[in-house]
Amino acid sequence: xxxxxxxxxxxxxxxxxxxxxxxxxxxxxxxxxxxxxxxxxxxxxxxxxxxxxxxxxxxxxxxxxxxxxxxxxxxxxxxxxxxx
Amino acid sequence: xxxxxxxxxxxxxxxxxxxxxxxxxxxxxxxxxxxxxxxxxxxxxxxxxxxxxxxxxxxxxxxxxxxxxxxxxxxxxxxxxxxxxxxxxxxxxxxxxxxxxxxxxxxxxxxxxxxxxxxxxxxxxxxxxxxxxxxxxxxxxxxxxxxxxxxxxxxxxxxxxxxxxxxxxxxxxxxxxxxxxxxxxxxxxxxxxxxxxxxxxxxxxxxxxxxxxxxxxxxxxxxxxxxxxxxxxxxxxxxxxxxxxxxxxxxxxxxxxxxxxxxxxxxxxxxxxxxxxxxxxxxxxxxxxxxxxxxxxxxxxxxxxxxxxxxxxxxxxxxxxxxxxxxxxxxxxxxxxxxxxxxxxxxxxxxxxxxxxxxxxxxxxxxxxxxxxxxxxxxxxxxxxxxxxxxxxxxxxxxxxxxxxxxxxxxxxxxxxxxxxxxxxxxxxxxxxxxxxxxxxxxxxxxxxxxxxxxxxxxxxxxxxxxxxxxxxxxxxxxxxxxxxxxxxxxxxxxxxxxxxxxxxxxxxxxxxxxxxxxxxxxxxxxxxxxxxxxxxxxxxxxxxxxxxxxxxxxxxxxxxxxxxxxxxxxxxxxxxxxxxxxxxxxxx
Lengths: 84, 589
What we know:
- The complex is a heterodimer.
- By secondary structure, chain A is mostly helical.
- Chain A has a single domain, classed as Orthogonal Bundle (Non-ribosomal Peptide Synthetase Peptidyl Carrier Protein, Chain A), CATH 1.10.1200.
- Chain A has 3 helices and no strands.
- Chain B has 18 helices and 26 strands.
- Classes of the chains: A mainly alpha, B alpha/beta.
- Chains A and B meet through α2 of A and α5, α9 and α16 of B.
């Protein structure tokens, strides 16, 4: 099972290049309100996450995610679910 | 698993059928069909038309078993998957009306997606609603308390009892489907299309638009709930017995290069996209890998669904030249759901055809005077071709008088594939469709050498990344904030210097604290992103700034002109996004 804090760190690193420059990215950062993620950016992020963790992210989890933390928690579940 | 073949023995029939079920009966005699690829580009399921037909008839029997009247609406969350096709055609055999619902959801958008589905279910008075398991929880929530006969997944529907006896498919004058025209649906418009109407458009597209050949193969990542995705890349391949390969829109969004990979791998010949799709794809290509595809088979790269700018297409063609992409494969198309799909195609094999006009003269006098090639101030506009046979077009001035070639006005069309109207919306229908059959497209255009050239939009519709957005939806979001009164927000689109459309909201606001103003702007922008997935400029202005008609209604075109004037004068205050504003200012100034 991946450690939450470690995972959060990795997720933040993946998000940073997609976020507006100089904008802080932390657990309680709101992806839509604070980082201005539109649907194309969201797709880019999901793609990177899928590549990085070798998982498949189902579309239907997105509507209930707002913050970096919520995203990380969902990823943690997905990674656990896909572990052999 | 093996994909359905391109080559096949069944003689080509170019859409000359009375109904969609009749077309599928014929396609089912061959070996072609639909193939579905996953986000890794691997083949995930194969659905030959022969199997599709049998499975659709099975579904039809279960639909008939519900004892609903003919023409009942069956809402289908239109995810790109075999079940959508089974149910869509199942409705045809059962003489029910399929209603594709959007399968597009945004980060944090749970509530707004459910609300959207609910409005559509209510607007079309659906009797049955089906969603793949991934979307079921949203659909169930949306249908809560509504009097539907069935809400569930295809798997659960398969447990319903099947009716015995003969089936009577939907006939030429019955509705083939209802198509909602905008992704956002505060104000839904469900376009009613009969079998005769859609078959007429399909036959025209197949014969005169795409000019289908027996060895064609289509490829599509377009959503099934859009007219181009549904009519152009689901119904049209089937009605011409052509194999088609599908990639989910989300998988294209994540990995646009899969579009090219699948065309290469399957030697596809026909594929369509909005300009932004080509742009997204080109952005993700690196020079060192842009030569690894084989796109020589791609004979028709259709472009439509939003205003076509030539530059992104040139970039796409240039970077993919090493892969054998032929820029002559581009064809610009014009159409809309209200016409089933297509009104015109630019001639095949000639690439994007430009008309050079004197920009200044056009802005001043509504005359699209030809410019010479060495005129630096000339504007290149894309020719969308002559109307398909059976279509008449008129460009009319403000008083409704037809105008000669090269005069810009509102484009009206009349032809055999125009809708019967908007479902349950007589007033909206009367606003756009005359008793003589003329449809007001809401687009501004001129005609040159018989070819349609779109110059802008008169209707208020905003199109961003191929997605239709009604200004009312943006205004509603603003007006739902406690600081904003109803009727104090006006939304419209402006064209940025790079040719992209941008949504703009001008809001009258009393609040004077800068911090609170910034917070309000940020909040509304976030809501818009979450509901509609797009960015929006927001300008807060003083009370009584927005122009109103004598009856007190807001004038969006007036608000837009005033906004552009303020931008030109450097008088806008825009928190954030200052680069974009700077660009706009340069253009306006």
